[in-house]
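Anyone else keep sequences and structure tokens together like this?

Example one:
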Amino acid sequence: MQLLANTFVFSTFFMIPFLGGNHLPLFFVSIDRFWIDGIFGLILICAVTFSFLRYKYTLSAFFKYLLFFSPLFIVSVASVFYSWNFFNTLLWISILVWSIGSVYLYSTCPDKNTCHAGLIAGAAFASIAAILQLKILFPNLIATFQHGLNAQILREQSGIPFASYMYHNILGGYLAFIFPLALYFGIYRKSLLSLTAAIIIAMGVVITSTRIGLGITLLMYFVTAVILTIEGRKKDLLKVGLVGVISVVAVILILNHGNTKNSVVDARSIIVQKTKAVSADLSTLNTRTDIWKNGYQAFKHSPIIGFGAGSFEYAYRKYFDGNSYTSVAHSTLVKIGVELGLIGLACFLFYLTGISITSSKLLKERRYLFIMLSLVAGFLFSLIDFSFDVKSHVLSFFVISSAFFFSVPRHHNNTTKAKINGKGLAVFLTLIACILANMLFTTRLNESRTSVHNGDVLIEQGLPLKALYSYRDAISAMPLTTEGFPRALSVLLQLALSRTREFDADLAAVGLTNDPRGLATALQKMENYESSIWDILVAPGRKNPHPSILRTHPHTRKRIERLMNLEQGKELEIPGFHDRIVPVSYTHLRAHETVLELVCRLLLEKKKKAYTHNRCPAMQLLCASRTL
């Protein structure tokens, strides 16, 4: 029972580094966000249940944590009533619910090292996934996808690996976040696996070429070296030196090994280029100063309560000055200030105050000192990048910071069987219900986004009707999101344009042939040729079951009616129509030859002699070219 509980606890925290927001299975090694989030939710529920049933614990420490955490959570929930984006607010609340569940599991687990080991192992495997992407996955993908949506995303990433994250810099920041914990376990706990994980994590930071993450990693590396020097631990100092040397040598070997000709941009060149531009970019912080300036303008518009949790993009768009557009704040303080106002900033600072109060007496112990170093690394990165928009960063921040609220003796390992009481049972059941609801919300959201991605691929392949069905599934799975609606509307407009072009092609053909009745007869013959006698007499619409709005071509009957109206002079006269007719090419929307080509082929059989005279010079030229 204890082994099973520890396995679930380890697995839960092992999954956290993979919650990076990537939902495209094309770019990850084996699984996408749909499965990552779903598996994480199931494992979290099992781990919380086993820990509740197995271990004896008190709720006082957890309630103490909630005292400092709940104001931020309450303000976020309250922002639902005035948020500019209801869905994004729910998304942020969902991340906070995952955080509460993870912190509860951390509080009930008697051996906190199991939780830390899960985070370290997960970060190391995320780094390994990035290396596999760089050496195996990316070259094959780049050779396969030369054009289209997938090729565009590859170009945007510039060939830099990002594991399960949407951007490589966020992966590098997360690895820098966990790096101090790996050093602690490798040096002070004499764990060879943790020391190896520290080397792999450092390699991942370098390969992702994020300068902010690399700078924070180097800072933590040198702080660790200073601590060991002060303590006089020469052997451990040598280990730290070996970690740095082995990491650099391994990265050089990886970047120089194999053929890189298939890469969109050589990763080695990017690393060198970013290194040379450090001094120039430090003066401007890239485009972040522009983003923060626009964010400040949005903050001044609603300084007290903000625009609602998760609504930064909508507030930023209102005060966008045309320089640097973004959907994320690139700073935790800017994000919270714009979204939740001064009240939200006060709640977040209140939480940080709780950390400082509870940690003041614990930092003398090396375990908590390195936990604080890890927390500082993550917080520094969040100040100048958008880590608080990524689930893994938020969960890790609250879990690692909660360690100061649940301090236990170093060698304490309480495995006494739990005595279930009413208060503990009520907290457990409430938490399980929230996690289940959150899991359902996340699963439906990921299902919707997967359907949207499938629809985009179908559009790229020239299958608008199937894409529309995929967007319909996306809307059905998560009607609160706005990703499916505009895409479905664009497909409907595309289908309407296709039908309009069919009518325009008929008018153009009339202008060239001056024979509407002949065109109508040709269309009717083609319709009869494609249908059997049974279809014509019993089920004339069987082969076209879709409503008119979902058809790429108008009904043949309507086209014939319009042509016959032209024959009878009922069609409205369009001034200058014959002078401005220009044949339109739209073969990418058609599954057969154009109407003009069809007219040439059928009328050549019916009126070949009549159209060899000067009655219709344009038709004579078309027929001659068709015959050739």
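And example two:
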Amino acid sequence: MTDELILVYNYKNLKKALEYRKEELDQKIICFDFISHKYLRKLGISHNFAEDYIESKEKELIDNTTREIMFSWYDNDDIKNCLIYKNLNLGWLLENELYGYFLEVIKNFISLKKIIKDEKPKKIVSIDSLCDISKEISKKTEIEIIEYAKTEHSGLAFDKIMIPFNFGKSVHNIQVSRKNAIRIKKFLDDTTSLFLPSNIQEEKKSILLVDFNLSLYYDFLKTLSKSNMNIILLNLRKPAVRNIKDLNFLRKNKIEVINYKKFQKSELVSIVKKNQIDMSKKLEKLFLLKEFECIFQIDGESFWPVIKDQMKQIFLKRFNEAINYFEIVENIFKKINIKEIVTLNDVGYEEKIVLSVANSHNMSGYILQHGMFPDNSYAKKFLNILPIIPRFGFKAAVWGNYLKEHLLEMGVSNEQIISIGSPRHDRFFQDTKVQNNDIVICITPQSSIDFDSVDTREFVKAEDMLHSMIDIIKEKKCNVIIKDHPSQHDLDISSIVHDIDSTIHVYKNQNIFEFVKNAKIVICIGFSTVLLEAMILDKPTILFQIHPNWIDEQGVISNVTSLVKSKDEFEDVLTNLLTDTKFRISQISKGKKFVKEYMTNHGKAAEIFRDVLIN
């Protein structure tokens, strides 16, 4: 039992929280996030983790409830009627982003319920969101609840957008609100249009590429541009052109970039505004429904009152945006003669809009595999939010027979799958293999899909492991290079590394190819496609797996990399790779064998896929 609890969540308000700290009182500080933990640790302030109160049965409850709610709430008949826009369920559209948001809410709800039960506090001091949950849980008690700060609600994963820009040899990231990101994108798209005026030839058929990162697919696009078709990029999420190199490449290869603003004529703007007003009226009715109280509950208690207001704001903003995108894409498909559509996933918000409209026009296309997926049964629980099973009548263009067999086992028909290899990895097979004294550590924060993936203690373990790795590598007189995953995530890897060793530079958006090509050894913290890329380039690999459920210890990837779980295991493996030639060659050979089994059409996948698309 504790008289007072100070709940810390969001480090920006930590100073205010600590104003309530009194040495003479019976208090406990409980931390709900990793960054707040780091600050508390620096200050030498003792604290517990919220996760310390969660046992295995609660973990299972959190995971199962999140999946059950998130993969079905939008299909409730009464709710669904208010979510449909031209046969598109707007609630389903947000499934991928809402998943992480609700996982965090449900985890905090259960954590607080358990904390209050175990500690039986007389007073709770916290930020507004945790106070709201505490009030909901402790309605029948006399706990005093004090709010020390109102915070900006985190919202969905892409309510803030990270935009990379190249300045000379450096790549800098600017994180802005979604609203400002859209403004910046429009400005950059308009600027691109000045240098790349549209020249889509109406008599030709077109291949539409949705939200491609140019720098990863230069070779494929160059090969594709040699066909007698319009090659068109449609990037709704981020600008297609990010630097002068991109601009020159597109101009030289006569590849078109759609500025969707050009398809947003005045009559369409009027239609969109009318439809947005109609949707706002639907939302007013939607949030009067009692069904939400029953659906959004866990362990017999509803958490809907805690999230209702924020959900209303999220829906209003995103649904209005979706209606705008839907009508623009509809107009694009009416004006351009599209033969095939290629996208890298079919679970993203923007991709779902494009593919839903394409499906209504009976257009075909391919979901091109863009990474190495977990191959175990655990991943099958999350197929709704993982781009593995092809939807919308599209085909899966996979890297090889390994994933093809995996898809067949999951019920995908043979006609829906084509093995073409990986167009973006042709260069990996064609380039000369070299090495220097670099050891590359690639960090891949895992997706927020279950309790373990948002457990603060797991981040602490990963940070401690990274610290140990850097110290050991430096002891071995090797250079350390840190490569952060280019995806958008909350962890500031640069500051974490700076705290360990301020002389080490962290790279993020730079192409992984040169780093891996020149490396002596490649280390991954977190399951990553980089393991496969290193094996293509004849590099031995080490994996420290953050998320324990993503891979099986006797699974296919575990047998071809060196899987380590501790500092001592890492040091032993690293020493052997550096000093034992026989062991090093053995590990490289295992990797080469895996690449041969996993991927097909080595070095010529771009040409193979081009022929598939144009014939």
